[in-house]
Every structure is written in structure tokens, then in C-alpha cells.
Amino acid sequence: MQKPVVTFSSQIDFFKAWLKHPLRVGTFTQSSRFLAESLVKPINFHKAKCIVELGSGTGNVTKKIIEKMAPDCLLFCLEIDTRLVNRMKRQIIDERVRIIEDSAENFPSYLNEGGFKKADYILSGLPITSLPKQLTRKILNLSIENLNENGCFIQLQYSPVRKKELKKFFPAVKVNFVPLNIPPAFVFVCKRTSKFINAVD
Questions:
Q1: Running along the chain, 201 residues long, what does each successive block of 10 average in pLDDT?
Q2: Closest Cα partner for 66 from 85, 44, 92?
Q3: Under a CB-based contact definition with an 8 Å cutoff, are residues 51 and 43 in contact?
Q4: How high is the pLDDT of residue 12?
Q5: How many CB atoms lie within 10 A of CB 72?
Q6: What is the pTM of this model?
Q7: Distances from the Cα of 136 to the Cαs of 1, 41, 162, 169, in angstroms?
Q8: For the chain, give me the number of helices (H) and strands (E)?
Q9: What is the distance between the alpha carbons of residues 139 and 11, in angstroms, rounded to a whole number?
Q10: Euclidean distance between the first and final Cα of the chain, in Å?
Q11: Domains in the chain, start-ordered, CATH in brackets?
Q12: H-helix or E-strand containing 112?
């Protein structure tokens, strides 16, 4: 079973990635187990067949997904930093997981290659507060277009300021605060429909 564990070496790799591209990585430290649990809580793992993770980092959230996902579910992990991708490939060996070194906006092509028209859940660790606005809007639009009708888009942020913008794309947005993380984080759970069904409390 793959469990999310923050090690010194993985933290060093993550910190180096942050130093290299601080606006693209967004924070200097990895997601804690408390944050990983909050990010996967909205997922109905009994029904999910296709999950996308944008900005996988060192794989802490990825491992939590793998721990819970069904045998017939497929997980696509996109990460743009070569060092982090290589670490994930060394540590995660699972036929249900596709670890891809590419930019987040290219995820639809990998869905098609994997035999899926749309994803059930899209988890994003991308720093949408610091990414160029045009790129952020493109990724959000692509997420809506490539998300099943009852699916969820789950966004990690370290500030609540993007809720208003997310509501321009998703009619239903819930925010969960995760204080037991460094830094404290916010998890935005966004749905294409106006009401939440089987989502977080």
C-alpha cells in the first residue's frame, strides 16, 4: 500500500523545485497527510474510474489516492518538473497510474490515449493565484470540458481569494480549511451542477 510520507530527501527535491520555479510550484513544502486526506475526501472511490491529478509534486497526494482507488480505476498524474517526476517514477510502481512529465493544460490528450472521454475527478495542486491569468482560465475551461457531469474539480490553494473566480466557472463551490498543514491550506471542491451530491459535508 502506497502511503503519503514526507521524507527529508523528498522535501529537499520539492524545495529545489520551488527555488527553480517559485510561481509555478506555489509553496516551499509538500502537502501534509492532513491536507492529502482533505483533498481526496470528496472522491467517491467506489464509482471513480478516471482521476486526473495536476501538479503531482513528490506524490504525497498521489499515494493517498492510490491507497483508496479501485482496481479498475486509472490515475493520470501530470507534473512539469523533471526532478519530481523522476522521484515519483522511482517510488510509485502501479499499473493503474500514469506519471506524465508535461504541462497541466495538455491533460485531455492523455485521457483520450487512455481510452477516456472525460474524467470523474480532477485534483489540482497548481498555484492558480500565481500562474498567468490566461493559463489559469485555460486550465479551468479544459477541466470543465473534460469533467463528467457529476464529477468534481478539487483545487488546493493557500489563500481563499480565488473562490469568486472559481464560481465563474463552477456554479457550486465549497471551501474546506486545513489548519494542520505548513502553510495552512484551503481545499476548493467545485462541481459543474448547482447542487452538491455525495460531496463533502
A1: 46 44 48 90 97 93 96 97 92 96 96 96 91 92 94 92 87 92 91 58 31
A2: 92
A3: yes
A4: 45
A5: 8
A6: 0.83
A7: 34, 24, 11, 11
A8: 8, 7
A9: 27
A10: 27
A11: 8-191 (3.40.50.150)
A12: helix 107-113
